[in-house]
Amino acid sequence: ASGDSLHKRGYRLEKNEAPLNEITAAGMVLLTGWNGKTNFIDPMCGSGTLLIEAAGIAMDLAPGLCREGFGFQRWADYDAALWENLVAEARERIHPPLGIISGSDVDAETVEIARRNIERAGLKGHVQVRCQNFVDARPPAGGGLLVTNPPYGERMEIEEIEGFYKLLGDTLKQHYKGFEAWVLSGNTSAIKRIGLRANKKIPLLNGGIECRFHKFELYDGTREKA
Question: What is the pLDDT of residues 10-47, one digit of tens each?
């Protein structure tokens, strides 16, 4: 009925070397329990999949709304008028996000790909991306949710990837107080270098790689004990 796979929303015609599947990205956002009413940050956004899926959830954007077509549109009893009404109703439900949705990536070409994907998804003006190292990126005021999928180290030496994760942890502790951070990683050794205690670890598969989706609560000050 769908024709092409439903995970292909229609916006990602370009991608970087190791992109998240659109449905995996949407599932990750939903697993955090995010209600779409706060800021959403991805400081290593790649081609922008997490940002786009988060914005779609926040704005009640029907998945696949920007696809060119579906298999059932070639059926003999296809009702074009009915389908057009459903699409119109879906478009009427769309509303602006209540928080800031933004990301960054160190690679300028990847950022341009993300911007084109965002525009194809109909989210230009609602999702912002910039070319910037995650160490230098600063979140908006007011806290919120950070979700990211950093490198796992397949192309890095052990010392380099462990240093990378330590730097990520230091950056989170210094600049993201008041945020809830979720980090997907398939490197069980390097993730420990973040230096934060995970409040939750959810097993996930990303392109056949066994990963853990780690939740870190970054308190602004000392957490009060019940």
Answer: 787 766 665 688 999 999 999 999 989 999 999 999 99
Helix (H, G, I), strand (E, B) or coil at 144: strand
Q: How much is the pTM? A: 0.88
What's the Cα-to-Cα distance from 207 to each of 19, 25, 110, 166, rounded to whole Å? 9, 12, 20, 25
Q: Helix or strand or coil: residue 103?
A: strand
Of 71, 52, 70, residue with least CA distance to 61: 52
| Cα–Cα distance for residue pair 128/105, rounded to 1 Å | 11
Max CA distance (Å), the chain: 64
Q: What are phi and psi of 22, to 5 degrees?
A: -60, -40
pLDDT of 121 above 50: yes
Residue 224 pLDDT greater than 60, yes or no: no
Q: Where are the beta strands (DSSP E) in the chain?
A: 39-42, 101-105, 127-131, 144-148, 179-185, 200-206, 209-217
Length of the chain: 226
Q: CA dihedral in degrees (74, 76, 81, 86; nearest 10)?
A: -60
